[in-house]
Amino acid sequence: MSSRTPLIAGNWKMHKTGTQAVEAAGKLKRLVDAARDVEIMIAPTYTALYQVAQTLKGSAIAVGAQDLFYEKQGAFTGKISSEMLVDAGCSHVIIGHSERRQFFGETDETVNRKIQAALSADLIPVFCIGESEAQREAGDTFSVLDKQVRVGLKDFVSEALTRIVIAYEPVWAIGTGKTATREQAQEAHQFIRSLLETLFGKPFADTVRILYGGSVKPDNVRALMEMPDVDGALVGGASLDPETFSKLVFYN
Ligand code: PEP
């Protein structure tokens, strides 16, 4: 366990209408009211953001979006800017999720531009990286992570990045029920932190939070959180039910 404040974040993906999201957020708010020394964030779908943010006003639960577009405004049909997310009540935004990389043409270069857009609107980017099963089996895990970090964070200086959160999400563990062992998670997190030290210096690397994501559940969260470089979790499936998600918040 690290001295960094843990962040337990839920990615609701394309689940829940506005009404359902408000109901779940209201329940979660009651369930985690007593949580201390942990940050909590949920990322509903775009159409529910404003309502959920209103529901959670004054609570300790932050609201995040699942993506943004890097341009400020213009003829970009279907896209949402960082300013629009802030206006809807977001403080965080997930960037570079593997599903966006896999299905929607997200690249390390677009991720870099999105992180820039998020930071310039004072949104906290939750920057996702992770290797596929084939890449792990080929022994390429570290080189994949290295490229994702170097290109995703290219041209930034540490001062601009202070609030960024990294999420290590091995693609083979997302939604599959196959969690990385805590040793595999620690090994990857340690690699990422030492790379960040090389790129941005020790003070930055020591304070940046690195979340683990990939089939995190109430029965494995504690073991993962005990590892020295695991500073929280980015959770898909187990974030949808407020009772289950609250168990992750109270992992301790
Ligand atoms: C995710 O989508 O970021 C994720 C980790 O999903 P799950 O928890 O369902 O594996």
From TrEMBL:
GO terms for biological process: gluconeogenesis; glyceraldehyde-3-phosphate biosynthetic process; glycerol catabolic process; glycolytic process. It is found in: Cytoplasm. Substrate binds at N11, W12, K13, G175, S215, G236, G237. The keyword Isomerase applies. The keyword Cytoplasm applies. Pathway: Carbohydrate biosynthesis; gluconeogenesis; Carbohydrate degradation; glycolysis; D-glyceraldehyde 3-phosphate from glycerone phosphate: step 1/1. This is Triosephosphate isomerase. It comes from Desulfosarcina alkanivorans.
